[in-house]
Write a structure and sequence with these properties.
Helices cover 38% and strands 21% of the residues. The protein has 10 helices and 12 strands. It has a 5-stranded mixed beta sheet with strand order 4-3-5-12-6, sandwiched between helices. The longest helix is centred in the N-terminal third of the chain and has 29 residues, at 61-89.
Length: 299
């Protein structure tokens, strides 16, 4: 067969990340290898899968159709492998942990080390999403386990336990014009200046915005780390998790200001799908069902 699971996985990575180079980085391959594999597959099939526009590429109608069915095949193959392995050993072939981008992946190093000491053979795949994106990954079957911010989506099909909360404060650089504004800051005062917001990574669920007003000028960034850096640089304002910016507040590179509309604490949840659980998922649920936030954040 010309179309293999490896080929579908490759096309999926290119589509998700927008270019051969980005897919190569994600798959730990060189871009020339990716380009050669796609060109060879297109030659064998006698059709084009991608429209090339410089470094950016997009799927052709034929490519869309292939990937629509191909993603189902990838999920089915992964489920089959996992079921076979669970039947033989009780442990899944792979566990996919998705965490909110506010939490650095390095924070899970002790937990990963303890899991590796089991030598159970289960592969571990870790990814991060922003805001609703973590819940969507669980709902869509791209994650077995999530540590997500905010309440989960309606519809059920999963279990969740609270693993902590983060307090937020409205912060600006000491050079920002809002430092001189009347306090507490009103909505009208905030509307006159640019907000820095973390973009929701959800693909299908409704995007979530926090502390953003209609018509607000904004700069959207991919992570909380980028949001903090932009606000330290004086490029905008916004609510920040106080546990993540305490050193900036102590140094005076950020200043917390009172607002008329404060932001409530953000709850975080450990969530996993209901149904049959393999031994690896049980281990991770037991391991992470503890107060994580803000304790797990680096100081």
């Amino acid at each position: 067969m010309k179309i293999t699971l490896d080929a579908i996985e490759l096309i999926d990575a290119i589509d998700r990340h927008g270019s051969f180079a980005a897919a190569a980085e994600r798959l730990h391959k060189v871009p020339s290898t990716i380009s050669y594999a796609i060109n060879k597959l297109e030659d064998q099939l006698g059709l084009s899968l991608f429209v090339r526009n410089g470094p950016r590429v997009s799927l052709t109608p034929a490519g869309h159709e292939m990937l629509k069915e191909g993603r189902w095949l990838l999920n089915a193959a992964a489920d089959l492998e996992s079921r076979m392995r669970q039947i033989a050993t009780g442990y899944e072939a792979e566990i996919r942990l998705v965490h909110d981008s506010l939490i650095p992946s390095s924070a899970f190093a002790p937990d990963i080390g303890a899991f590796e000491d089991l030598r159970c053979g289960t592969r571990l795949r870790i990814a991060c999403e922003a805001l609703t994106g973590s819940w969507e990954a669980l709902r869509d079957g791209r994650a077995d386990l999530v540590i997500a911010a905010g309440d989960g989506p309606a519809g059920g099909g999963y279990k969740a336990v609270n693993v902590g909360a983060l307090a937020f404060g409205f912060c600006v650089a000491p050079t920002h014009p809002l430092v001189l504004a009347q306090r507490p800051l009103s909505r009208e005062a905030l509307l006159q200046h640019t907000a820095i917001v973390v973009g929701d990574s959800a693909r299908h669920l409704s995007e979530r915005t926090v502390g953003l007003q209609l018509g607000q000028k904004r700069i959207t960034v991919p992570t909380m780390a980028a949001k903090i850096a932009y606000q330290v640089a004086g490029l905008g304002h916004g609510f920040l998790p106080l546990a993540c910016v305490q050193s900036e507040l102590d140094r005076g590179t950020l200043i917390e200001l009172p607002c008329v509309d404060s932001r409530p604490d953000e709850p975080f949840w450990l969530g996993w799908k209901t149904g049959h659980q393999g031994e690896a998922l049980k281990w991770w649920v037991q391991r992470l069902a503890r107060p994580l936030l803000p304790q797990i954040l680096p100081r």
